[in-house]
């Protein structure tokens, strides 16, 4: 592994703008790099459905041994503000200049995967088929991996590099997430002259929300109202108001229960005030649970031990492409890349964690070969 090359990859990558939905320039930058490793490369056609100017970038390096095909994945998009990133290296840590995020979420994963594979190729280390998927539109919906055509992939085992904390953390379970929209409809009236003729949608909405269990619902379950919309001049009783919310749970039954609870609170309030409510919920992605005893987990624990790091299997409330891989028949876990404070202007990553992630890629390839 060449640390200088890895760091240069990372610094180059974060300086190419790729906010969610605009990953094309970054994908175009990566294509010749993957081709130079001997990979067959394609950009798939999920861009339109996912809402991007690019598709997912898929690469395959043909096997030199008869190990199984394994998948490595990270996402190309970054959260805002992420245009014009100016990375600063200080005391072995890479920061942004404080005006943008760094974009190490998830370009650190991409840099580590590429450096790992490049080392395997340079040193003629035997390997099975290696597949990479660098997804679009992970942030805000996992849409790249959701709409991916899985018949394009051979791997039944996958490693996603996309979670924070020190290298060694292994995410083996993640939640289901539902998106909820509730629109309350009351009746307009002059607020000063004849308020008794009106039904306030805002009051209905407020009463409903105040009767809900939200935020940390239980050990497995969370829920949050993210946005409220509606209203107008103060002299009119508001006819319509909407809230947008999410609910998540590691347990599908508990998620269904939480959605039911939120729906009931809305209907009870609408009934109390004599108005109506339209409550719409849709599943954004499903929960996943990979057993600790499974090959995908046990092998990454071994690979980590080979580079002197203890593997720590754990579960998270956060979503990642890992959910969609598991949903589509690829047994996958999400590995920490050493990111600190992702999604903030203080985001940073230790160069040593970048190096460890690349070493881990190499060890995994060796183990499966
Ligand atoms: Zn990420
Ligand atoms: Ca993220």
Question: Can you put this structure into words, describing what you see?
Answer:
There is one protein chain. By secondary structure, the chain is α+β, with helices and mostly antiparallel strands. Helices cover 33% and strands 28% of the residues. The chain contains 10 helices and 17 strands. The protein has helices at residues 3-14, 24-36, 47-50, 104-122, 143-147, 201-210, 252-273, 295-306, 321-327, 351-368; strands at 40-43, 57-61, 70-75, 88-90, 93-95, 130-135, 157-164, 169-174, 176-185, 215-218, 221-230, 240-249, 276-285, 288-289, 312-315, 331-340, 348-350. Strands 1, 2, 3, 4, 5, 6, 7, 8, 14, 15, 16 and 17 form a 12-stranded mixed β-sheet that branches. Helix 4 packs across helix 10 and helix 6 (201-210) runs antiparallel to helix 7.
Report the uncertain regions: none
Q: How confident is the prediction overall: mean pLDDT?
A: 97
What is the radius of gyration?
Answer: 23 Å
Count of β-strands:
17
Distance between the termini: 18 Å
Beta-strand percentage range? 25-35%
Give the topology string: H per helix, E per strand. HHEHEEEEHEHEEEHEEEHEEHEHEEH
Give the distinct bound molecules. zinc ion, calcium ion
Summarize the main sheet: 12 strands, mixed
Helix content: 25-40%
Helix and strand composition category: alpha+beta
Q: How many helices does DSSP assign?
A: 10
Shape: elongated
């Amino acid at each position: 592994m060449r640390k200088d090359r890895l760091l240069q990859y990372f610094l180059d990558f974060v300086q190419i703008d790729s906010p969610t939905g605009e990953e094309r320039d970054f994908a175009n930058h990566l294509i010749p790099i993957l081709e130079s490793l001997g990979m067959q490369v394609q950009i798939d056609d999920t861009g339109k459905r996912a809402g991007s100017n690019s598709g997912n970038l898929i690469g395959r390096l043909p096997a030199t041994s008869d190990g199984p095909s394994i998948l490595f994945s990270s996402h190309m998009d970054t959260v805002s503000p992420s245009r014009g990133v100016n990375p600063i290296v200080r005391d072995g840590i890479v920061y942004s200049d404080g005006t943008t995020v760094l974009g190490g979420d998830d370009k650190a994963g991409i840099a580590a995967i590429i450096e790992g594979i490049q080392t395997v190729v340079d040193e003629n280390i035997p390997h099975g088929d290696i597949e990479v998927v660098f997804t679009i539109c992970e942030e805000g919906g996992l849409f790249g991996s959701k709409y991916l055509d899985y018949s394009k992939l051979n791997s039944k085992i996958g490693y996603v590099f996309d979670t924070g904390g020190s290298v060694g953390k292994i995410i083996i379970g993640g939640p289901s997430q539902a998106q909820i929209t509730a629109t309350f409809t009351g009746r307009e009236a002059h607020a000063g002259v004849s308020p008794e003729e009106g039904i306030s949608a805002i009051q209905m909405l407020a009463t409903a929300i105040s009767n809900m269990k939200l935020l940390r619902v239980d050990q497995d379950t969370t829920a949050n109202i993210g946005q409220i919309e509606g209203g107008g001049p103060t002299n009119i009783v508001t006819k319509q108001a909407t809230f947008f919310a999410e609910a998540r749970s590691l347990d599908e039954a508990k998620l269904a229960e939480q959605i039911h609870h939120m729906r009931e609170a809305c209907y009870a309030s609408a009934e109390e005030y004599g108005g109506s409510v339209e409550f719409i919920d849709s599943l954004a992605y499903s929960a996943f649970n990979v057993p600790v005893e499974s090959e995908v987990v046990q092998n990454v624990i071994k690979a980590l031990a080979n580079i002197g790091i203890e593997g720590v299997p754990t579960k998270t409330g956060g979503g990642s492409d890992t959910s969609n891989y598991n949903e589509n028949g690829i047994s996958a876990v999400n590995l920490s890349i050493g990111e600190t404070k992702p999604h903030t202007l203080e985001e940073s990553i230790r160069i040593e964690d970048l190096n460890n992630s690349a070493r881990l890629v190499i060890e995994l390839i060796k183990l499966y070969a």
